[in-house]
Amino acid sequence: MEYAANNEYTEYATNNDDRISNDLVSETASSIQIESSNNSGRPPADVWEEFNTINNGAGKHKGASCRYCNQKWSRGRAHEMKSHLALKCKGNVPREIRLKLFVDAYYDVKEAINKAKEKRANQSLIKWIVYSGISFSAFDNPYFEDYTKALNLGYNPPKRSALATSILDAEAANIIIKMDKELSKAKNLTLCIDSWCSPLKHSIYAFVIIASERKQYVYSLRDFSKFTHSAKFNAEKIIEVLESIGLKKFTAIVFDAESSMMVAK
Ligand SMILES: [Zn+2]
Question: How many domains does the chain have?
Fold first, then answer.
């Protein structure tokens, strides 16, 4: 067994009960206990195994002192303790332990990502994709997976097929539910109808609702290419939207300049 080179430490043959002792708090560097167990270089299951516990009294957070260099913390925090042993400790920390704790502290491996965290990550990802107009095929590139693994090894990024279907649909459903909830309480709404021809010659209608605090909701985008856009047709579609939210909530309707829309008015 090796000790720190400055020979400050004294070894005691102790049992575990001695570790949690009030006396430790007042002990000086020269008498900190070093246990003979677990100095074999085997990585600890729990970082606390590498620290002496400082008992701060009932109900208080436990303090810690490093067994290798005697640095003390009035409150032991696992992450801080791991990063201390991995990189900062001047004591003779076995290489195996340093490596293991380095990975734990900086790569978050032990914490397999839970479902809720994964869902939140995927939601943020799909928002970024949609708002930035990024192609779904970009996410099948192995460098994207490399990037996510560098941040958190426990996260498995979704494949493009899942992004373009279930994750996108789930986010769209979230937005619709949120919009319906907000619109159900809103008053003095304005419905704006805009129509244009897409590059693929589809006739697209956008129904946008503006609430009093200037909040805009894209209520629906419809492809009406297959229909004749008569005044009657337009009027029907507009009434459909108004009725689905509540006719009485609307104070104005604004059309784009298209002539058939003007007739619908
Ligand atoms: Zn240390």
Answer: 3
Measure 60 CA to ligand 1 centroid, in angstroms. Answer: 23
Distance from the CA of 197 to the center of ligand 1, in angstroms? Answer: 68
Expressed in angstroms and rounded, the spacing between residue 63 Cα and the centre of ligand 1 is 14
Find the mean pLDDT for residues 167-173: 86
Say whether both 164 and 238 belong to one domain: no
CATH number of the domain where residue 211 is located = 3.30.420
Q: Which structure tokens are listed for 12?
A: 């005691």
65 C-alpha to ligand 1 centroid (Å): 8
Return the DSSP state at 49: G
pTM: 0.45
What's the 31 CA to ligand 1 centre distance in angstroms? 15
At 19, the pLDDT band (50, 70, 90 cuts) reads very low
- The confidence band for 32, taking pLDDT boundaries of 50, 70 and 90, is very low
pLDDT at residue 66 in the model: 94
Alpha carbons within 13 A on the beta-carbon side of 101: 28
d(CA 83, CA 141): 33
Q: Cβ(233)–Cβ(227) under 8 Å? A: yes
Mean pLDDT, all residues of the chain: 76
